[in-house]
Amino acid sequence: MTGTIPLGRVAGIRLQLHWSVAGIIGLIVFMLGAYWLPTTLPGHATVFYWLASTAAALLLLVSVLLHELAHALVAVRHGLSVDRVTLWLLGGVARLRGEAPTPRAELFISGVGPLVSGVVAGVFALATWVLVILQAGQLAIIVAAYLGMLNLAIMVFNLLPAAPLDGGRILRAVIWARTGQRFKAALWATRTGAGLGFLLLAGGFVSVVTRGIEGIWAMLVGLFVLQAAAAERQQARLGMALGDARIGEFVTVGATPLWSDLSARDVLDSPLGNDGSVFAVVDRDGTLRGVLSPRRLQDVSVTERNRNTLRELADPLSQFTTASREEPVTSVLSRYDDPRNSILVLDQGRAAGLVPATEINRLVAERMPGTAARRAETSPNGAAARGDTEPNPPSDWWYPGQRRGQ
C-alpha cells in the first residue's frame, strides 16, 4: 500500500499506518463524541465526550494492531518472514513472504488473530468490572465496555469460515489437511467468502434503505470481502496451474557482482556489461546494496563518471520484489505489487539474477490464458488499454533480446 506512515518495528517486523486510518478514526470519534456518548450518558461536558471518543478510537487501533501482529509473530515462528504489518481503513494486513508450509502452521497462524482479539476483549471486560468496583467515571466504564464488545465482535466476525477472513483460512487449513490439496482448499474457502460478501452487501443495502446510513459500513465490508475473495480465488487457480514451479527456474537476466565503491569509469573502461547481465552492487563486506543496469551506467555523463560510484547509481533493493531462488512462483506473485517491475532473485543473500516483468506475464499467460491481459489492464501504465499484451518495464532497464522501449 502506498501513502503509509512508519510506526517502527517489533521483533524486526515493520509497522505502518495507511492514511485511510484517519478516516475510520475520525468516523469513530465523531459518532461516539457527537452522538452515542451524549445520548447514552447525558450531562457531561462536551470536552469529556470528545476525549473519551478519541481514547476509544486509539485503543481500538491498538487492538487491531495486536491482532495483526499476532499473525505476523506466529508466522515468523513457523519459518515465514514478514514484510510488514499495515493498518488501514478496514482493519489491518500482515504481509507474509510465502505460504504456510503445512496445514498445522496455517491453522496456528490464522487462529492466533481471533484468539488475541478474544483475549483483548476479556481484558477490557475485566477493566470494566474493575472500574465499576472502583466507582470510576461513567465515561471510562462505558468506553471500556464498548471496546470489550468491539473486540468480541472482531473475534466472532473473523472466525466466520469465509476467505479472506481468518475463519476462511482456518477452513482452508482443515480442508487442506483432509485432502492434501492446498489450492483446492483455497478455492472452497473463497467460495464461502464470496457468499459472505454478497450477504453483507445485500444486508447493508437493505439497512440503508430502511434505516439510513447505518448500513454503509456493512456494504463497505461486503465489497472488501468480495474483492479479496476474488483475488484469492485467482491466486488459488494460478497456484493450481503453476504447481511447484520455483522462481529460480525463470531467471533470464544474470547478475554480475561488482564492488559498490567502484566508479562508473572503472566499469565502463572494462569489458564488463557486454553479456546482457545486470550489475549486483555489493559492499566490500558482502552486503548487497542494489542493482545497476548497463544502460543506466552508460547514461552517466562523461564529466561525472569519475565521481559517481556504483552505490550512488544503483537502484536500491526496495524498488524490487525480492525472492529466494527456491521460493514457489505462487508465493512470489502473492506480493508482486507492481507488474511493471522485475523480480530480483537471491541465492543465499547474493543476487542470482532478474525475472523481468515480461517473463512473468509470459509464464502466467501460458498457464492461464487471458490473465496477463487482465494484469495489464490494472497496471498503472494501462498497457492493455493501448493494445499491448503486457505491461511495459521501467524505461531505464534493458533486457537481452528485448528492443529498447518495447
Describe the secondary-structure layout.
Elements: E1 4-10, E2 13-18, H1 21-40, H2 46-77, E3 81-88, E4 91-97, H3 103-133, H4 138-158, H5 166-179, H6 182-211, H7 216-242, E5 253-259, H8 264-268, E6 278-282, E7 288-292, H9 294-298, H10 310-313, E8 315-316, E9 321-324, H11 329-333, E10 343-347, E11 350-355, H12 357-367, H13 371-378
Parallel strand pairs: 2-3, 5-6, 9-10
Antiparallel strand pairs: 1-2, 3-4, 5-11, 6-7, 7-8, 10-11
Protein name: Zinc metalloprotease
Binding site for Zn(2+): 67, 71, 166
InterPro entries: CBS_dom_sf, Peptidase_M50, UCP006404_Pept_M50_CBS
Would you kindly provide a brief summary of this structure?
The chain has three domains: 4-159, no CATH class; 180-243; 247-386, CBS-domain (Roll).
Would you mind describing this structure in some detail?
Its main location: membrane. It is found in: Cell membrane. It comes from Actinopolyspora mzabensis. Its cofactor is Zn(2+). The protein has 406 residues and is of the alpha/beta class. The protein has 3 domains: 156 residues, no CATH class; 64 residues; 140 residues, Roll (CBS-domain), CATH 3.10.580. Helices cover 52% and strands 15% of the residues. It is built from 13 helices and 11 strands. Strands 8-7-6-5-11-10-9 form a 7-stranded mixed sheet. A 4-stranded mixed sheet has the order 1-2-3-4, with helices on one face.
